[in-house]
Amino acid sequence: SYELTQPPSVSVSPGQTARITCSGDALPKQYAYWYQQKPGQAPVLVIYKDSERPSGIPERFSGSSSGTTVTLTISGVQAEDEADYYCQSADSSGTYGVFGGGTKLTVL
Amino acid sequence: EVQLVESGGGLVQPGGSLRLSCAASGFTFSSYWMHWVRQAPGKGLVWVSRINSDGSSTSYADSVKGRFTISRDNAKNTLYLQMNSLRAEDTAVYYCARGIEGPRGRGYYFDYWGQGTLVTVSS
C-alpha cells in the first residue's frame, strides 16, 4: 500500500522557522495537503494543493513541493503552533486517501 | 456555518457490529463527497472510506474492505458507516469529513471535520 513518510518530531524555538517534510512516490502526480491537530481536537486544514492557504490560516504557514517531497514551512513559529501536523495525499490513481504518520512540532 | 456531528460510537465486543452516523448542516450535503477518517488512541490519522455525492460510488481502505459499508441519505443530510466483524484494531475515534475533489485523478482533501465519535472494540 502507498505510504507517506514524515519525521516523527521537529523542535524549534519561538520566532524561528519550522520545516516539516513529507515524502511519497506519487507526490509528483498528486497534490499534497497539510492538517494541524491539537490534543483533543479535530484536524484543521492549513495547506491545500501543495501551497495554497485556506482563508483564516495565518500567512506564516506555507507549503512547497519538489519531486517526491513536499514541505510545510512555519515562519516565525509561535507557541500556539505546537501541535501534530499531518500530510495527506492520494495514491497514483487518486482513489485511495493516505496520511503521513504525523509530525509533532514542539516549540521550545 | 458548516457542521458535522458524529454519533453512534461506543463499546462493542470483537466480532460485533456498530453503525455510525454523521449529521451534516450548513451546506448542500448532496453536492459533496463525504469521507470517514479514523484515529486510534495516540496514533495518526487513517483514511477509511469515501462516498460520492449521490451514493453511487464508494471506496474503502484495504483494512476495512468487506467489513465496513459507507452510505448516505441525502434527504436526511446524514452519512453512515456500518461496521461489521469488528476487531480490536478498529478501536479509534471516527471522524466524518467533507471532501473536496481535486482535478480529475488528482485526489481530494478534507475541508471540514466533525469532532469524532469513539469506537472501542473489547471484550
Protein described:
The complex is a heterodimer of chains A (108) and B (123). Chain A contains no helices and nine strands. With 108 residues, chain A is an all-beta fold. In chain A, the strands form two sheets. In chain A, strands 1, 3, 4, 7, 8 and 9 form a six-stranded mixed beta sheet that branches. In chain A, strands 2-6-5 form a three-stranded antiparallel beta sheet, with no helix packed on it. In chain A, a hairpin with a 6-residue loop joins strand 3 and strand 4. The radius of gyration of chain A is 13 Å and the shape is globular. The N and C termini of chain A lie far apart (36 Å). In chain A, 38% of the residues are buried. In chain B, strand 5 and strand 6 (58-60) form a beta hairpin. Chain B is mostly beta strands and 123 residues long. Chain B has no helices and eleven strands.
Distance between the termini of chain A: 36 Å
The value of Rg of chain B in angstroms is 14 Å
User: Low-confidence runs of chain B (pLDDT<50, min 5 residues)?
Assistant: none
Q: Tell me the number of strands of chain B.
A: 11
Largest sheet of chain B: 7 strands, mixed
Shape of chain B: globular
What would the average pLDDT of chain B be, to the nearest integer?
A: 96
The whole-angstrom Rg of chain A is 13 Å
Low-confidence stretches of chain A: none
Number of helices of chain B: 0
Oligomer: heterodimer
Largest interface: A-B, 30 and 25 residues
Order of helices and strands of chain A: EEEEEEEEE
